[in-house]
Design a protein that fits this description.
The chain has about 400 residues and is of the alpha+beta class. The protein has two domains: about 1-195 and about 350-405, FAD/NAD(P)-binding domain; about 200-345, no CATH class. The protein contains twelve helices and 20 strands. The strands form five sheets. Strands 1, 2, 7, 8, 9, 10 and 19 form a seven-stranded mixed β-sheet that branches. It has a six-stranded antiparallel β-sheet with strand order 12-17-16-13-14-15.
């Protein structure tokens, strides 16, 4: 039976980053990953480009962390986004900053993020065992832990410190199947209600004619029970799953939670947020006057719509506004209502909301308050962020804080 100073369960973003931080401290480190390859979820983030963090300061960053950004504050200041960027560049991964303060590998290849971490860990003497599914973690009277793994002799390994970084439930094909929640429960921890976040929202009326349409510089407002609860400005996509894109994903957390609670949920899309209703009315009056003077023979309403939205959007817009007139058009453009009836589940959700209850975890160290020597990092915690590099930074920061505390005692 092998013994290590620290065993990290989970070879995703949090687990690999924890291992990379730990190998530099002269400790024996092993990562146990259930899949045949580490970092599979990293490989699909940001459509395979990996938005690994962003450059926003804490005051702005914290507004994108849920449900308790105060819990995350110590971790962020232990290891912030600038340290993340410096670290990756120090191990040979060139970075670039794009619109929205988002940070990507310069290669725009997410596999380079995983490969750089794995190479660094192995180069510093760390160990990574793939195809190793942990069945349970036992706390011994001696104070250390024993690890039981599927298809391995029992006990398989022991460690002074165990870090659980198994992720949540999103994208189960990448290995996120909730094993960490089961292990944590066996050790006495509560798991809060989990649900998909950063996922597509499915309107009550939706069809293939929407799919593939992208909108820039629009605004969505989310209503729950008739009350406005969120407003976002930016880009939006209509996909096979429903409404998503950056701003659709950002409101999805509150929308999904509302739907689970049985509350009436509605998205209101403003196609022309830069124009007030009165200014939009004036613009349409000008367009109608220009049409009349030019002798335009086409249907008046379709002609106006062709000037105000992508042509592919005209048909679905008119179908949801069957009695539309030129007089009604300004209000319809400013308030296109989408009652939401469902959402895409974990199979395509970017992140899991909910997880290990924060009441049982020290915000100063990420150590369990119930089991000494047990630590948590990343998506397994009841801690998640908006799209834009926030979730990976949460993984890197919580992993770093856990390692800093665990290996300097």
């Amino acid at each position: 039976m092998m013994h290590r100073d620290i065993i990290i369960i989970g070879g995703g973003a949090a687990g690999l980053f924890a291992a990379a931080r730990a190998v530099g401290k002269g400790k024996t480190v092993t990562v146990l990953e259930r899949m045949e390859r580490c970092g599979r979820k990293i490989g699909i983030t940001a459509k395979g480009r990996c938005n690994l963090t962003n450059t926003r300061p804490w005051e702005e960053f914290s507004r994108h962390v849920h449900p308790q950004n105060t819990f995350f504050k110590n971790a962020f200041f232990c290891w912030d986004n600038i340290k993340t960027m410096d670290f990756f560049e120090s191990i040979g991964l060139a970075l670039t900053v794009e619109r929205g303060a988002r940070v990507f590998p310069r290669s725009m290849n997410a596999r380079d993020v995983t490969d750089s971490l794995v190479s660094y860990i192995l180069g510093k003497g760390g160990e990574i065992l793939t195809g190793c599914r942990v069945e349970s973690v036992l706390k011994k009277e001696t104070g250390d832990f024993e690890i039981l793994a599927e298809g391995r002799p029992h006990p398989f390994a022991s460690a002074d410190i165990v870090l659980l970084a198994t992720g949540g439930l999103s994208y189960p094909a990448t290995g996120s199947t909730g094993d960490g929640y089961r292990i944590a429960r066996e050790l006495g921890h509560d798991v809060t209600r989990c649900f998909p976040s950063l996922t597509a929202l499915r309107p009550a009326v939706y069809g293939k004619e929407y799919e593939g349409i992208s909108l820039k510089n629009v605004e969505v407002e989310l209503y729950v029970g008739g009350r406005s609860v969120a407003t976002e400005f930016g880009d939006l996509d209509f996909t096979s799953g429903g409404i998503e894109g950056p701003i659709g994903l950002r409101v999805s957390r509150k929308a999904v939670e509302a739907l689970i609670n049985g509350e009436k949920t509605e998205l209101v899309l403003d196609l022309k947020p830069a124009l007030s209703l009165e200014k939009l009315k004036e613009r349409i009056r000008r367009e109608l006057a220009a049409e009349a003077s030019s002798g335009e023979k086409g249907p008046r309403l379709k002609y106006l719509l062709s000037l105000l939205m992508p042509r592919a959007l005209i048909l679905p817009f008119m179908r949801t506004h069957p009695d539309l007139t030129a007089d009604d058009l300004p209000a319809a453009l400013k308030q296109w209502r989408f009652p939401i009836e469902s959402y895409v589940g974990y199979e395509r959700a970017v992140v899991t909301a909910g997880g290990i209850s924060l009441k049982d975890v020290s915000r100063k160290s990420m150590e369990s308050k119930l089991v000494k020597g047990l630590y948590f990092a990343g998506e397994i915690l009841d801690l998640d962020g908006d799209t834009g590099g926030y979730n990976l930074q949460i993984a890197f920061s919580t992993a770093s804080l856990a390692v800093e505390h665990a290996l300097t005692l």
